[in-house]
Amino acid sequence: MEQQPESERPEDRRDVGRPRPTWSLIVLPAVWLVLGALGGVAIINVVRSDDAPAASAEVSAKDAGAEPPATKKPKAEKSEPTAKATKKPKPKPKPKPTTEPTVEPTATRSIGVGVYNQIGIGGLAARVAGQARVAGWSVAAVSDWRGSVPQDTVYYPAGRQAEAALLGQDLGIVRLMPATANMSSSSLTVVLASPR
Questions:
Q1: For residue 80, pLDDT beyond 50
Q2: What is the pTM of this model?
Q3: Spatial CA neighbour of 193 closest among 30, 37, 46
Q4: CA-CA distance, 25 to 27, in Å (whole number)?
């Protein structure tokens, strides 16, 4: 008896010209989508925060001899009142009125300025530094900035808010903030976060 070839079963047939879908074609794009969404949320949160940005530039020329200040971590707030917190503060004596008018310090352009580019547009910090020089400021540093400042900002050391306001007016920057621990304590710091 002659054996007849068995008929081909459908599962034995393979369509060579057409690839079969595999788990990787379904799972990998789903993983990429989830990771992309999480990355996008993380980037948005970083951009919105303005927690002590870190400068990637070297210390400005005026501060070159001094050691850079150590970065301080903010202390956690305590929710429980302490014994010191429950004491009533002593009232401060009220100043006696005088007949002489008080003179507020006049802002001058005598303080140094550092201009930093956060967004990576080539020549942006140099262009804005040039605008500051034309206005009469002494620019001590021009470099890139690594951090997350939400908008163009002038940071000022203690007691120099009037100069920061004047520099902001000269450059068209409205956001003024006290300098953080990792910034110069003797000059104004401009961080550019927009193409201007």
A1: no
A2: 0.49
A3: 46
A4: 6
